[in-house]
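Complex record, two chains
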Amino acid sequence: MDLSNKNTESTRSRRRYVVSKRLDRIFLELGDVYAFIARFFKELWFPPYELKEIINQCYEIGVRSLPLISLTGFIIGIVFTNQSRPSLADFGAAALLPALISVAIIRAIGPLVTALIAAGRVASGIGAELGSMRVTEQIDAMEVSATNPYKFLVVSRVLASTLMIPALTMYTTLVSLLGGYLNIRQNEQTSLTTFFYQVFEAITFLDLAASSVKSVIFGFTIGMVGCYKGYNSSKGTEGVGKAANSSVVTAMFLIFIEELLIMQVINALRSF
Amino acid sequence: MSTSDNKRSIIVGIFVFLAIVILIAGIFTLGGQQKRFIESIAVRAVFNDVAGLKTGNNVWFSGVKIGTIKNIRLLGDSQVEITMNIEERVQEYIRKDAVARISSESFIGNKNIVIDGGSQKAAPVEDGDIIKSVSPLNTDDMMETLQRNNKNLAAITDDFKVLSAKVVQGEGTVGAILTDSMLANNFRAMVANLQQASQNTVRASNALTNFTSKLNTEGALANELLTDTTVYSELRTSMAQLKQATTSAAELTNNLNATSAKLNNNNNAVGVLLADEEFARQLKGTMQNLETSTQKFDQNMEALQSNFLLRGYFKKQEKEETKKQEQLKSQPQQPDTTKQQ
């Protein structure tokens, strides 16, 4: 009798979940994510616009990230050019090096490296900042004081990230190409004019557009992931660390997934 | 708004502005390079095979990039129609009879269209025209030709292998040349003779050089003839005069010949005088008769002097003669001035 009672209880407890506890949690979190994103697009169009906070965040995300991202892009330009040379030299096609680095940097490396560095610096920063605000109940205090915390904290940061990552991508691409040029100049004595002629010879408007669109999507992803993780962080100091860490990991993972999908779409467009 | 906020806003503004400048510069450079912002006309060509040509590839004319491939579409009977965007400013140089062919930017590079030729007689190409095309050189065809060349080369080397074996064994003329010592000696002698001949040639050429240098010496006749235009014109005049003189001499000779021919004839006075023997005999008789008559006339004249009718006249003449001689003797002799001088 006791046994039958226990079985009934376990069946009831299993029925509390639609599929399983873990899967239900994932889908619930996905629902929260959709609601969080939808709220962003809803809040975006209505005042107050928090322009001052947006500019502050643009400064933090864009200007403060520039030295790190420029240096990284410059080094990647040099290293990529140097490592690609032997492969082309084997075919006697070292003269095609500018075209190769142009395609690689403008199509992929520029936006991707910028997004990854920004994910490490910006997403973790936003996650930690909003997480600590949640932990110290500053967000709750804002709600009580009739200030829309989502508007002030999330919309401004996501918007700043969405605007600044494309700008940073432009800088990174230019600096990476200059790094590549320095290496080519040192080895092949190619002039700057010839280098940039070959760089633009190898790409199309679709590549430029794809690079820009990609960086906008990456920027939105970084801002949104950082804000979501920080805004919904669990209580306690441990929650801040988790929010920061989870922001970086999730943002990077999503960036790679998006890169893969966008590449497929662009290749499909290229064939038209 | 505080100063710090203003500063941040300005920095963000500059940051975004520079990023937009980079993007716009990239767009314009790319557009300029791909001739996107240039007025262009569309020209078409139909090929059987485009060998991997893609939209956006370049169009070249006389080594100058003049446009890009705008569209590629398949036509019936497995043909491909290419539409090219060509800059309007080069329209006048491309004629309606120009020929388009598919080429490659490098051995492994992108394909492109090269427009060749076009005669001045034909009108310039216009928007929407279809120009002639030639089939591209296929890599497979090239490889096939190369393979045929390889086979030929293998056959040649096989033949050469047999030939060289015979040469080594001393067979045939070449083998004999390489192995026969007598032939080698003859060859050596021949080379020595050749050496001698070449030395002689060198000497001759030196002499010729000296001679020509003398000819080139300023003031020498040959140099004057070759360089002085006055001498040349004078020489030309002299030659003309000489020619004229020669012509006159020839005419004179002809006249003399004609005259001498006439002299040999009896139908004129001088010819009769010179050539007629009978006339000569008659003339001789006449002369003898004349001599006889003269002697007789002298006798008659002497007889007349003795005649009384004419004696007075002759005496008068004798007296006047005597008188003149006496007057000459009575005049004193004049000194000879010419000798003194």
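Note: The first strand of chain B starts at residue 40 and ends at 47.
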